[in-house]
Design goal:
The protein is mostly beta strands. It has one helix spanning 68-75, and strands at 5-20, 27-41, 44-57, 62-66, 88-91, 94-95, 102-103. The chain is flat.
């Protein structure tokens, strides 16, 4: 008999929001993302821990971590994006929408597959 047990990091897009990016200061579309560690048995989540929330700016590619309390309040519309204070701001790598390879920000087209960058 085989038992499949694994521990993995899962990422879930919780909500799309409109607000001002704390990284670049522009108004735009932000995505609230929840990440956590998960113990799975036969691919069924049993227990999770280490929950972290991030806001990702779709236009500039910056991702910043917010507190777990702010993440939960944003999920249930109890707090606005502007009221959240970032814990850490980082630049997300840019990837090709077609082949998913990492691209330099100067490229308008993917050098690997030729697809136009968004």
């Amino acid at each position: 008999m085989f038992i499949f047990i694994d521990i993995t990091t899962l990422q879930k897009e919780v909500k799309r929001l409109m607000g001002r990016c704390h990284g670049c200061g522009q108004q735009g579309s932000l995505v609230l993302v929840k990440t956590y560690q998960c113990l799975r048995v036969f691919f069924i989540p049993i227990w999770h821990w280490g929950t972290r929330y991030f806001l990702v700016d779709q236009s500039c590619g910056k991702r910043y971590e917010i507190s777990e309390e702010d993440g939960v309040l944003l999920t249930y519309d109890k707090k606005g994006v502007e009221a959240c204070r970032p814990l850490q701001i980082e630049q997300m790598p840019l990837s090709c929408p077609s082949c998913q390879r990492i691209l330099d920000r100067d490229y308008d087209f993917c050098p690997y597959c030729g697809a136009r960058r968004k």
